[in-house]
Amino acid sequence: MRSADSGDRLKPALLLEVIGYNRWSWGADNKPQGAWGASLVRTYADTTSVRSSGWGLAIHRNSKYTLTIASLGGKAAVLLSIDLAGAVTGTSEAWRDEFRVGR
């Protein structure tokens, strides 16, 4: 939040999805592709200069990226979430094929 005090601008936040919609299609390789979605969210952040909770809208892309715009006390807040766990714990197809049963 640009309008928050300098110590409150980049704070961790908790985002709870109240209700949402996700859509994807199946590719020729039987894997989901083109995923996108939107959710109504409730946000919480440990801030002192602005209200610490509010409502917002989250837009999801490929189940990896989420952009949220929320209102905290009448002021706009932007949250960006990236699925880093998927990148760290991901495995390659070649490695998975080595351990596949019934090849």
The side-by-side strand order for the widest beta sheet comes to 1-2-3-4-5
Q: Taking Cα atoms only, what radius of gyration do you get, to the nearest Å?
A: 18 Å
The succession of helices and strands, N to C, reads: EEEEEHH
Mean pLDDT: 79
Structural class: mainly beta
Question: How many β strands by DSSP?
Answer: 5
Task: Provide the number of structural domains.
Answer: 1
Summarize the structure.
The protein is mainly beta and 103 residues long. It is built from two helices and five strands. It has one domain.
Key terms for this structure?
mainly beta; 51% strand
Describe what you observe in this structure.
- The chain has about 100 residues and is mostly beta strands.
- The chain has one domain.
- It has helices at about 85-90, 95-100, and strands spanning about 15-25, 30-45, 55-60, 65-70, 75-80.
- A 5-stranded antiparallel sheet has the order 1-2-3-4-5, with no helix packed on it.
- It is elongated.
